[in-house]
Structure formats: C-alpha cells, structure tokens
Amino acid sequence: MPLVTMRQLLDEASKGGYGVGAFNVNNLEQIQAIMEAAQETNSPVIIQASRGARKYANDRFLYHLMEAATEIYPDIPLVLHQDHGNSPETCKSAIDLGFTSVMMDGSLQEDGKTPGDFEYNVQVTREVVEMAHEHGVTVEGELGTLGGIEDGVGSGEVNLTDPDQAVEFVERTGVDALAVAIGTSHGAYKFTKEPDREVLAMHIIEEINKRLPNTHLVMHGSSSVPKELVDIINEYGGKIEPTWGVPVKEIQEGVKHGVRKINVDTDLRLASTGAIRKALAEDPAEFDPRSYNKPARAAMQAVVKARMEAFGQAGHAGDYEKMSLQDMADRYSKEGHELATS
Ligand SMILES: [Zn+2]
User: Fold this and answer.
1) Mean pLDDT by 10 residues, the chain (342 residues)
2) Can you name the residues that pair with 142 across neighbouring β-strands?
3) What's the whole-model pTM score?
4) Three-state SS across the chain?
C-alpha cells in the first residue's frame, strides 16, 4: 500500500507554509468523502483511525478500504495515522497493519483516562519512536491534556502545555510532531461562547514554535462546530445544545506559527448526522440506505473541502515525489531521530 509518511507530508507543509487536516474515519462513506475532497482540491491528506474506529470497522476492513483509496487516487499523498495510541503495543499493531504514522499519547496512562506523569510520557513515547523510526513510520506525541472525552479517550481536565517542558520532551523522545494543549476539547461541546485568542492560549503555540522550529505542531479538538450544521440537526428533530468550536481563523493563525496537522472529527459527524436526519424527514417512505448515505457523504465532502482550502493544503498534492517508508527509515538511521525539516 503506497501510503506516504506523515513526516514527509508535514515537512512539505512546513516548507509551503500550510496546514494539513487529519480527518477521522470509521467507515466507507467517510473515506470516500475525504478522498473525493482531496481529489477535488488536489490536496495531500491525513486519514486517521482511533482505537475505537479500528474496533468498529475491524482492522482488515480498514486496511483494505485504505488500500482501495490509494489505488483509486494514486496522485494524492495519503497518510494513515493511528489517533491516540494508548500504549506501545497499540502503536506496534498499527505499524504491523501498515499505518505510516502513529500517535503515542503518553499524556494519559494506558486506560486513556488518567493523566500520565512527565517521566511516564517520555518513556513510552521514546519507546515508540525507537520502534517506529526503524520502519520509517512517523510519531506524534502529546504534552498537556485536552478537555472533553471522545471515543472513551480523555481525562476531561485541561492542562495547558508548558513550552519549556515541550523542549525537554522533544529532545528526550525524538518525536516528529507534537500535539499541544491550548485549551481546546474533544467533542462538540468545546466552548460555551465564541473563544478569543486568550481563551485559546494561542501564545503557547507561538512560544513552542520559536523554541522548536523543526517540530511539527498538532492541534487536536479542532473542529469548528459550525452553527449551520448544528441547526440542520436541530431543525430535523435533533437536540444539540448551543456550542462553539475552534474558529477557522484561529487555526489559520496557528498555521502561521508551526501548526501543521489539524485534527477534525466532530464537524464530519455533525454534517453527516444533519444530512441523514434531513433526508429521512423529507422522505419518510424511503428506506434505501443510499437515499440518506449519499447526502451524508456529500455533506462531509463539502466540510472537508472547505477545511482543505482554509488550512492551505489545497493545490499541493503534486508538489513532491513520494518517499517510501524505507527511504524514511534510512534517513532516520543516518540523521538520527531529530531530522531537520528540509
Ligand atoms: Zn485528539
């Protein structure tokens, strides 16, 4: 499966000064929506699966759906990333399956709920870096914790990332990408009013980027939770309370300061649920699942397309030759874990 490594994709994003959306998947329609949007906008893209997604879809189904994506869209640089690996074993199973990037989230202990201490985080992340880089696979770590709980992951408490500690963490682990906590949360209920730059602690991103210019920064919990998507759900019988996500313009500020990977999950969930509710309400006699899965897929594609354009990845699919996992493994063995972003 000629997937590309996340390291190469983010290095190129860094050179081009743009961000890349990382979209979560569980099923066929989500993968199709993301790939069609990538094709439409000529974008490199990251598809990620959580542990919950791997369990829901089954690893073998997921693998072959992704293989189909690389066959049907050979010109799109595509990364398959493990979202929130809870242990080195989970990351290893992803690498064995063919993932080209893994997140070792040592900010939480193996239960995915209890915050892990700094030394624990360094130790498990370092272990994954040693194992992954040998195969050319990229590693994302996380320092600090986000609010909210999604797919059973999260402590529910916010601990903002400390920039000095971030430097020590990256030096001791050799991670390629670092997820930072700046006050966002997983899920739909991130903020009770529109967040400003202070609420979002954007200065943390700027400070970390100044100290770690070669480390790609990752924003989790970065759905924008557009009101128009929430409104469609509520108009057709849903009950989503008033809520705010991360404004796209704040993400664009982050991209100016080293944010290269932006995780988006909730917005696709909202788009598909609204489209399905609307289709079912408008034609209650219809019972062909395609009658609601098609508009759901189109609604997700529209969201992904808009994010790709806003993050800046649109138009960049053909900028570079794809490196193989072996090429990347050779780079790590020659240059060490901390590659320069060249
Ligand atoms: Zn996350």
Assistant:
1) 93 97 98 98 98 97 97 97 98 98 96 92 98 98 86 80 96 97 89 85 94 95 95 98 94 96 97 98 98 98 98 97 95 90 63
2) 179
3) 0.96
4) CCCCCHHHHHHHHHHHCCCEEEEECCCHHHHHHHHHHHHHHCCCEEEEECHHHHHHHCHHHHHHHHHHHHHHCCCCCEEEEEEEECCHHHHHHHHHHCCCEEEECCCECCCCCCECCHHHHHHHHHHHHHHHHHCCCEEEEEECECECCECCECCCCCECCCHHHHHHHHHHHCCCEEEECCCCECCCCCECCCCCCCCCCHHHHHHHHHHCCCCEEEECCCCCCCHHHHHHHHHCCCCCCCCECCCHHHHHHHHHCCEEEEEECHHHHHHHHHHHHHHHHHCCCCCCCHHHHHHHHHHHHHHHHHHHHHHCCCCCCCCCCCCCHHHHHHHHHHHCCCCCCC
Q: Which fold has domain 6-328?
A: TIM Barrel (3.20.20)
Looking up tokens 């994010």 gives 307
83 is catalytic: yes
Which of 11, 75, 83, 327 is flagged as catalytic? 83
Q: Measured in angstroms, how far is the CA atom of residue 327 from the centroid of ligand 1?
A: 29
Residue ranges with CB less than 5 Å from ion ligand 1: 220
